Amino acid sequence: MEGTNRPAKARRKRVTIVDVAKHAGVSTAAASKVLRNAYGASESMRQRVQASMDELGYRPSRPARGMRGRTFTLGMMVSDIDNPFFSILARGISSVIRPNSYELMITPAGYETGSQADAVDALIDHQMDGLILVAPILSEEHLERVAREIPLAIVGLHSQSPSLDSVSADDSLGSELVVDYLVGLGHRRIGFVARDRDDPDSSRPEMVRLAGFLDAMDRRHLLDEAVVVEGPWSQEGGKEAVRLIDAQDRPPTAVFAGADIVALGMISELWNQGRTVPDTYSLVGFDNSNASSFGPIDLTTVDQSGLEMGQQVARLLLERIGGRTSAVHTLMHPELIPRSTTASPRN
Amino acid sequence: MEGTNRPAKARRKRVTIVDVAKHAGVSTAAASKVLRNAYGASESMRQRVQASMDELGYRPSRPARGMRGRTFTLGMMVSDIDNPFFSILARGISSVIRPNSYELMITPAGYETGSQADAVDALIDHQMDGLILVAPILSEEHLERVAREIPLAIVGLHSQSPSLDSVSADDSLGSELVVDYLVGLGHRRIGFVARDRDDPDSSRPEMVRLAGFLDAMDRRHLLDEAVVVEGPWSQEGGKEAVRLIDAQDRPPTAVFAGADIVALGMISELWNQGRTVPDTYSLVGFDNSNASSFGPIDLTTVDQSGLEMGQQVARLLLERIGGRTSAVHTLMHPELIPRSTTASPRN
DNA sequence: TTGAAAGCGCTAACAG
DNA sequence: CTGTTAGCGCTTTCAA
């Protein structure tokens, strides 16, 4: 069989660095130097080799480069590609790395620790030059271990680790902005939808937002007026939150949903019951997702600029690949976007 | 500098196939055979090597594999990761390839022919074993050229090419379902929002939907009642469509928007004007996107099962990598999802 | 400044 | 059934 049949498809042999070197009449080592803009090549040689590369349409093989040096490719792990925020993030990252001739490879890793760990391993196996993990569900310890193997930057976790870089929104400040705004409107009794009050991992944005909310309420001597309910951060969770808020003895006049998706679920549920916002209570989200200002939906929310966060994390990772060993942890300033789901309380 | 400093980070040396072979007391060739489940290894050796791999935590280097054989990685090109349909597609693909120990790498390529071509090149440079392109904005000719270099499957284009596989919804049937449904409701004058009536590329779903619409109307002797307006397939385009429909001498009693995004833009615009659907006219979308049934939005639309399409395209690509050289073009049956934006005409 | 040559981790002949 | 060996395309010493 093997001997008689041709391969399924006779693919054109690729142009290699050897072809380029031959064409330019230099050694492969020289061609390699030109390719990498490395030190030790005369201007004339540089030009000659460059010309050959262009003429032959040479494109270096990433795997081959990866075996000795860099692949010039960064890996990005996200839980699920279906998230508008990730998309904007990716755009920000690309805008920074493309000019440095880096590529971005994205892998969706699901919402479980196990599948995320596998995805990270796969990225490492592909010899990525560096990794960006978006809101990873991995322990600090696991992240440290990964950082020992490969330059690492994370987005959306308030890390203090000395071995990796991080970029996240100042969620605490975000919560404070919301409380300020609602109190300014005249609200005193304010609800918060927490994802998990007792999550041991205090670095997760969910927890920082909750802590920030409680702090802000405390600072205004309104801690007694803080109504915290618990539900998953999903549309479903929003529906549940509506029920939990309704079940309160003294329901709040405003609710800070913790995330847009929750607020949207709440709006949806309220609508189904023939109730509207802000007539039922004022409602605030967090994320400024696309859906938060679409058609009849016009949700007051907090914006964390995904574009800037993407650009920043890309810069950090490139620096780290470049040799920086100290850690940089950046907090980006969020901004309150007042829209029509908030108003002064009725009574 | 170079000589005195250690590398930025001393990364642990990876376990290689040589280590495994040494540990198991066999040759690297034998270890490789076990790794690849290749023919010619006794059961006892297989077990011994497998045990060593597990014990040492061996993970093969993809680049190294890619240099000689396969990388066991498929590349997926999408225009923008922020598209719910792509996400579902990716899930479908993963569910099929994971059990075959393949990985998926996604790269966002933008909406321009140039940037998409670059992205495809990058994927090829990474030695992917095969490529899945989602609704590529590339000429038939370009696709043929790519297919000559690498196993190729595309989603969302009605291709007839002999050198690549394709999966798409039967958009023509989808349009027919919509016309049937609307006519059944009593509508005769029906509008359609086309993306570009004169696009020369008749394989694009936009064109197939338009042609299918006109065919279906013709078959019912209603061609004179077909009102085709033109606008980009975006929310903005939806707003424009509302104006164009309003400008008609005899406005239609129902509008088939061609895509959910357009229908949603129309709903949004109508709402802003204080008008509602289906009171103004019945409205139908296409895609059954998440947003089509969210909160107060409850759009009649056509569903193309992204999950099944993903599974199918993955199967096709694996087959092709496996050696199939004939082309397979699959049309998936779409389904009409009646919701509350459609009703019988008033007059 | 340039080139020769070794080797990255793996697979694929080919011998034994 | 098993092992030896020669590369894949690139980078990197190390000499010239």
Describe this structure as you would to a colleague:
- Chain A is α/β, with parallel strands linked by helices and 347 residues long.
- Helices cover 42% and strands 15% of the residues of chain A.
- Chain A has helices at 17-24, 28-36, 43-56, 62-68, 84-97, 113-125, 140-149, 171-185, 205-219, 235-246, 260-272, 306-322, and strands spanning 73-78, 103-108, 130-134, 152-155, 165-169, 190-194, 226-230, 254-256, 282-284, 301-303, 329-332, 335-337.
- In chain A, helix 8 crosses helix 9.
- Chain A starts with 16 loop residues before the first helix and ends in a 10-residue tail after the last strand.
- Chains A and B meet through helix 4, helix 5, strand 2, helix 6 and helix 11 of A and helix 4, helix 5, strand 2, helix 6 and helix 11 of B.
- Chain A binds a DNA duplex (16 and 16 nucleotides) through helix 2 and helix 4.
Topology (elements, then pairings):
Two copies of one chain form a homodimer.
Chain A: H1 17-24, H2 28-36, H3 43-56, H4 62-68, E1 73-78, H5 84-97, E2 103-108, H6 113-125, E3 130-134, H7 140-149, E4 152-155, E5 165-169, H8 171-185, E6 190-194, H9 205-219, E7 226-230, H10 235-246, E8 254-256, H11 260-272, E9 282-284, E10 301-303, H12 306-322, E11 329-332, E12 335-337
Chain A binds a DNA duplex (16 and 16 nucleotides) through helix 2 and helix 4.
